[in-house]
Amino acid sequence: MVQGNLPVKRMVLYKHGVGFIERGGACEGGLVKLSFKRDEMDDVLRSLSVFVRGKGQVTGVSYETADDISKLLAEKAINVPDKEAMVGLLRALRGYRVRLWVPGEQAEGKVVGTEEVPQMDRWARSPAR
Fold first, then answer.
1. Could you write out the DSSP letters of every residue in 63-119?
2. Residue where a domain stops, chosen among 13, 35, 67
3. Does 44 lie in the same domain as 90?
4. Whole domain around residue 96: which residue ranges?
5. Domain for residue 92, yes or no?
6. Of 18, 22, 31, 55, which one has the fewest beta carbons inside 10 Å?
7. Same domain, 59 and 8
8. What number of CA atoms fall less than 13 Å from residue 127's CA on the CB side?
């Protein structure tokens, strides 16, 4: 396990306080652990890039938090109602980019709204009520 000891290979600092830091090194079948201050985590998670050379692979990126996990999940959760779950899910996803798969088709885009259209009863000639 490499405990935050990946050496800095390159560092670029810009006059507006933004910086780019590249670390690199070998990690033989283990875990790379980096430490950051709590107030830096948002920036780190938004800008972290991991590149792997050779046959290795990134299997996940995780972090520990002192915040109550149930509180964090509640803030990020998408609430889906018990009734009309699909419509509720789409309404909860308003503003999010989504990708949908249906047999033989794929659609991708941003959810901007929902519109309920009466569904035809397969045996009747008028919309179901």
1. ---SS-HHHHHHHHPPP--SSSHHHHHHHHTTTSEEEEEETTEEEEEE-------PP
2. 67
3. no
4. 78-110
5. yes
6. 55
7. yes
8. 5
CA angle, residues 55, 59, 64, in degrees to nearest 5: 140
Q: Please report the sign of the dihedral spanned by the C-alpha atoms of residue 122, residue 124, residue 127, residue 129.
A: negative
Confidence tier at 19 by pLDDT (50, 70, 90): confident
Helix (H) or strand (E) holding 44: helix 41-47
As a whole-number percent, the residues of the chain with pLDDT over 90 amount to: 2
Residue 107 pairs in a beta bridge with: 100
Tell me how long the chain is: 129
More confident call, 115 vs 72: 115
In 5-54, the DSSP E strands lie at 8-13, 19-23, 32-33
Phi-psi region of 104 (alpha: psi -120 to 50; beta: other; left: phi over 0): left
Q: Please tell me the pTM assigned to this model.
A: 0.41
Domain identity same for 96 and 59: no
DSSP 103-115: TTEEEEEE-----
- Of 34, 10, 24, the C-alpha closest to 56 is 24
User: Are residues 1 and 38 located together in one domain of the fold?
Assistant: yes
